[in-house]
Amino acid sequence: MERKSSSEVRKMFLDFFKSKGHIVEPSAPLVPHDDPTLLWINSGVATMKKYFDGSVVPDVPRLTSSQKSIRTNDIENVGHTARHHTLFEMLGNFSVGDYFKEEAITWAWELLTSPDWFAMDPEKLFITVYPKDTDAKHYWESVGVSADHIIPVEDNFWDIGEGPSGPDSEIFYDRGESFNNLAEDDPENYPGGENERYLEIWNIVFSQFNHKPDGSYEPLPHKNIDTGMGLERVVSIFQNAPTNFETDLFLPLIHETEKFSGKKYNDDKEQDVAFKVIADHARAITFAIGDGALPSNEGRGYVIRRLIRRAVMYGQKLGIKESFLFKLVPVVGKIMQSYYPEVLEQSDYIAEVVSSEESRFNETLNDGVQLLDQIIKKNKENNEKEISGSDAFKLFDTYGFPLDLTTEYAHDEGLEVDKKGFETEMQQQKQRARAARGNQTSMGVQSGLLTGIQTPSRYVGYTELTADHAVLKNIIQNDQLVTDAKKGEAQLIFDVTPFYAEMGGQVADKGTITDEDGNVVAEVEDVQHAPNGQNLHTVKVLEPLQTEQAYSLSVDRHFHSKVEKNHTGTHLLDQALRDVFGEHTKQAGSLVEPDYLRFDFTHFGQVTQEDLQKVESIVNQKIFAEIPVKTVETDIESAKKLGAIALFSEKYGKKVRVVSVGDYSVEFCGGDHVKNTNELGLFKIVSESGVGAGVRRIEAVTSAEAYEYLLSHDELLTQTAKQVKAVQVKDTPQKVAQLQETVKTLTQKVTNLENKMAKQEAAGIFDNVQQAGQYSVVASVVKVTGMSQLRDLADDWKQRKVSDVLILGAAVGEKANLLVAVSDAKVKAGLKAGDLIKAIAKEINGGGGGRPNLAQAGGSKPAGLEQALANGITWLTEK
What we know:
Layout: H1 6-19, E1 23-25, H2 49-52, E2 62-70, E3 87-96, H3 101-113, E4 125-129, H4 134-142, E5 150-152, E6 157-158, E7 163-174, E8 198-211, E9 217-230, H5 231-238, H6 251-261, H7 269-290, H8 299-317, H9 329-335, H10 341-345, H11 347-381, E10 386-387, H12 389-399, H13 403-412, E11 416-417, H14 419-437, H15 448-451, E12 458-459, E13 466-477, E14 480-482, E15 484-485, E16 488-494, E17 496-497, E18 511-514, E19 520-529, E20 535-541, E21 545-546, E22 550-555, H16 557-581, E23 587-592, E24 597-602, H17 609-624, E25 629-635, H18 636-641, E26 655-661, E27 665-668, E28 683-692, E29 695-702, H19 703-723, H20 732-761, E30 770-772, E31 775-781, H21 787-800, E32 805-812, E33 815-822, H22 824-828, H23 833-840, E34 847-851, E35 854-859, H24 865-878
Parallel strand pairs: 1-2, 4-5, 10-11, 12-17, 31-32
Antiparallel strand pairs: 2-3, 3-9, 4-7, 6-7, 7-8, 8-9, 13-14, 13-16, 13-22, 15-21, 16-20, 18-19, 18-22, 19-20, 23-24, 24-29, 25-26, 26-27, 28-29, 30-31, 32-33, 33-35, 34-35
Helix pairs in contact: 3-4, 6-7, 7-8, 7-11, 8-11, 11-12, 12-14, 16-17, 23-24
């Protein structure tokens, strides 16, 4: 078996299954598209769910992929074991109702052992099977696997609860006695046991049953094959690496970290853990950010933040004090360039995000260390030998301290950590996270009703908004296929239709269905794609309908025209955003309605009003330039040569539509558009906001809605002009500025008068000096209008040097204010205004603080002011 690079192994796997009639599915983004059950894409089969549950029928039932995936459920094991990772690639081949056990097993053995492919020694391969799966055992034997290399294991049954399930076969590679970490008679010392010698490299699932809610199993209408081979594991065999980390997927990152730290990998076991964690996490955060996720305090953003913080903490353990993680981003890009060129292309942007987060964490890190010091001090003062699980989890959850790091700090101080309590807190958090994601099942059961409908249906709406002789081919009513539709709701499929099915953010068309006499027999309320691609019309049936009858289908032209304008508007907006913010800006979602358009885009940072004006100006310039909008249908490669922008979240067939707005905007798009930008008339942004970590949202209007928006604002401006008595509307800003200056002058006069009155009101308070223990004190409740006047009185008191301490209170409406000032001499002697304000603020239901010489507090209980002052005198007396 020859040494192979990770790129060679990946390519060989995909090429092999391509030679067996499989279509190579590109690796989907880590952020799931339209799947609320997943936080991340966490396996190869996760992207195939739509095929296995029947919601989409693939063009070809044989598929293969190398899918990047993220799992963080056992993040604490990363670096401590040979093969735990947060980001990994899963090689897989899939059959959707096509081939089954015999072919899957035959091809697996051929790939593994053929001299033309992996060329592994058959003697080093062991197979586990489900004991009752005699078919699998038979097929393994028929390809040449000896009986003593086939091991029955009761756990070899893949089952996630309700939904598809079935037996599986796991394939193990014998790495040899030198890797054996168990005694000869250890019960786990066998292929399939928990040991280091026999490495699992492939799992082949024979999905043939439906696990029903009542616990029973029934055969699936279509049997499927789902396999998973961990790229990192297989590469470690080809490169004879002790662990996955000594392969070309990780070593460049480890070597770069050596340069930052001045330390060497393989010099110290504990030190090696830090190198491994940093290398692993650098990969995960680079890919996650590249796929559109950004650090935040919840969901995916929290995972990224946690990984960054964990890597930085381990960098500290290696002695790296400055920001370094962002420098590993281009290293990840170079390692993965052959299959994921987009990572290197985005490396500057990704590095910027990581660098910003690192800088923020360095500030948080100091707070975390201080908290840990306080916890350790508290434990020692109370003679407690163990840091509580809740404290350890707070350090982990709020400041990013890994449990093992907290444990290490604690051990240095002679303390233990309540790890069970920590795990309890962790499990509660996971339960909260699962509850937040809902309880939807992760894999549905194939729908025999819609998947079985193979009727061809042609969409003509790009050029025609009516179809006069559309034959009704299928009717679904009350979840059954029928030949006659009664009044009520029904779903219809025609052989031809002008109705657009909702896709790519564009809403579905609406309209009517008429019979040959011109009578309206149904109203089209929604259109979606059926599993086999037909346009499925949801209608309100007004008169009975029959299959194989011809009807006239008419799209609401006004509705459709407004949608077209807004869809072209999103394309212009998309490119304008790139012009203003840079190429890292990507579409993160869109909605094209007849009355407005909504466009979500990735952007790390705020969007200013000036930025929006630039974007809006660019779009309107393109509208006024009267640019032709053209659509061509071509193959994907030709479309890319045209410079067409594709969305990673969308799946494209062999033929794609490319919409070009002159040479300004070129995009893959299956939607409807105007013929010329001048049809939009006008474009106006009506709002911009943040909708998530690193995702901004713009809502805009075009045409009549844009005119109405501007008209409403013009009316507001006219009304304002009248109110400020501007002679002409154009004079309004100047008139408003004059009024603001007048208000400012009057406000200053009022403030001066209030201050004068306050001084007059409080003129006698400095004459009333009393003694409280060793301190001379002025304490009084005064009538002022706010805290600023209390501070003015304190300034006056300080200049006069009236007493050692000043305590003032004031009731302002339903609020209470307190102020304490201490002379410089008494501050030097150790008296602090902040200590005194905290002691008395509770009487007004408030809290406060400040500098040693001046502190203030606010509260909601004015009636408590007198008692607060009395408590102040008592506190000073006892001091």
